[in-house]
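Students often ask why we bother encoding 3D structure as a string. The short answer is that it lets us treat folding as translation between two languages. Here is a chain of 320 residues written in the first language.
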Amino acid sequence: MTPTPDELTGLLAGIDPRWRVRAVEPLAEGMLNTVVRVRLGDAPPSSVVVRIRRFEDPLYGQEFAAERFAYPLLPKERPARPHLFGVGRIGAHRAAVFEEVAGPLLDTVLRDPSVSPTPRRALLTRVAEDLAVIHARPAHGFGTLRRVDHASDEVLGFWGGLFAAEADALGRVAPASVASLEAATRGWLAAIAEAPVDLVRPSLVHGDVHARNIIVAADGRCVLIDWEAARLRSPAYDLVQLHALDLAGAPEEAAHLRETYLRRRGLVGAEPALLRLVHVFTQFWKVRMAVFMVLHERPGCAYFGRLADWRAYLERAEFA
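And here it is in the second language, the structure alphabet:
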């Protein structure tokens, strides 16, 4: 789905009437969104990025363009994120218009064998420090699931509510696996209860931190994009996808990311607890991803995995 210039004209005119669409170039097609670059006429900027939400997620209640809510909670300087010009609609679909940030995705850099360990570690240092800044921001009540009571000062109640909601969702697609998930969540809650409170107390999180949501800008900044999953969660939750998708084959770099993050947050010595939490939240993330994809029959992709594999994962019920 690539919108035509005529379809984009109304959206952009509502943000800045000086903008004129000169060309539209597809950038990415994900499970939920289409992303395009729009070349503009004479008025600055020369181009913008438009993210079009093709699929709504009623089960988890993600608010499209959560940038509107997350950005004001953060310091202006850090973490770097693209400016949001505005939101609107293209036909039946909601859309958001962003500043274009030039540079490769962190995923591209990490997979490039010509990039030496030193610059790779420097980039991971910036990512870890940016996450520490995000997680220091309180966000009471922000982005919680509907009909689930989890007060921000009751850590076990918060996570118990989320795990119970996920078990209910699992019952819609793999009811025979619910008992296994409920057994696993008892162990997850025990790990959360034993962890340092600053790693489990719900705070603002980006919610979708992986190397395809980070642009390496020309000045060396790591620019975090796609904040629509930003919400109230455990800080450790933001380390899951980096470990599972991007650094699984690079244990030294994963350890560097953790150590830098803990040092920045004043939690030196808490790495064993953080590792255990990353494991817990990885299992939770996998269940949530699988339930979402199976329930809505999303086709999946090479980066996140195929629908058939996620369906088999739920049926095996190996959640611990």
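Translate back mentally: The longest strand covers residues 21-29. Keep this in mind for the problem set.
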